């Protein structure tokens, strides 16, 4: 009769339960979750899942883009005239801010790959500050619209009660929306075509600014989420959770941030440069 040594019995016991060798291997791989066999498999699954999520995000913005295409095709002159009331210089500055933030994110992934975690922290800090800068500029641009609705030229004039606006215009949905006859809007030096005045029907100008606030507001919400994600990953980096062998969350967070930038790259010309 064959006998079994204690060592063999111990090894067989691990095999029967299916844990010993597998858990032992996982203990030597940083960040590898128990339901993955290799770091490569975990990275591929995480990346695939993130891309699937990003596709749903594109579908979300795609509805707004489709509405924009339809109404831009129906009212091309009105949309061009309405766009002149947006603050293009501020939007251009915001575009530069976002493009620089994309660079800092890409550099942070490269730094993580090379194990330079201190540099990752610095680059994440820069990205977060640029994100707050973008939101601050966008907030000022929104404040301009509310200031105009209340009869002031700038948000500062509105806050101080000075500098009454010479032109009465309101571009904020839910308030007295913009009508060309109310502020003498022009297109190419000539009076802009009169907007339809059917009772209860929105004018092309209202449609433009409704789409503008929907698109840029949704983008701003994603910016807030992106800053939160970057802050959490930065905290994990500070806690030493990542190494050259495992930095998947840094790459995944970078993908989400790049999505935010790409969406803005489309929003900027569609609304500001038409």
Q: What strand line-up does the widest sheet have?
A: 1-2
In helices, the fraction of residues equals over 70%
Order of helices and strands: HHHHHHHHEEHH
Shape designation: elongated
> What's the gyration radius in Å?
27 Å
Oligomer: single chain
Amino-to-carboxy terminus distance: 89 Å
For the largest beta-sheet, the strand count, sense and barrel status come to: 2 strands, antiparallel
Model regions low in confidence, pLDDT < 50 over at least 5 residues: 6-22, 180-200
Percent in strands:
under 5%
Q: Whole-number average pLDDT?
A: 80
Tally of DSSP β-strands: 2
Number of helices: 10
Which structural class do the helices and strands define? mainly alpha
Description:
It contains 10 helices and 2 strands. A two-stranded antiparallel sheet has the order 1-2. With 274 residues, it is mainly α. A hairpin with a 2-residue loop joins strand 1 (186-187) and strand 2. Residues 6-22 and 180-200 have low confidence and may be disordered. The protein has helices at residues 6-17, 20-26, 39-74, 76-83, 88-113, 117-149, 155-160, 180-183, 204-238, 248-272; strands at residues 186-187, 190-191. The relative contact order is 0.15. It starts with 5 loop residues before the first helix and ends with a helix.
What labels would you give this structure?
single chain, two-stranded antiparallel sheet, 70% helix
Summarize the structure.
This protein has 274 residues and is mostly helical.
Annotate the secondary structure layout:
Elements: H1 6-17, H2 20-26, H3 39-74, H4 76-83, H5 88-113, H6 117-149, H7 155-160, H8 180-183, E1 186-187, E2 190-191, H9 204-238, H10 248-272
Antiparallel strand pairs: 1-2
Helix pairs in contact: 3-9, 3-10, 4-9, 5-6, 5-10, 6-9, 9-10
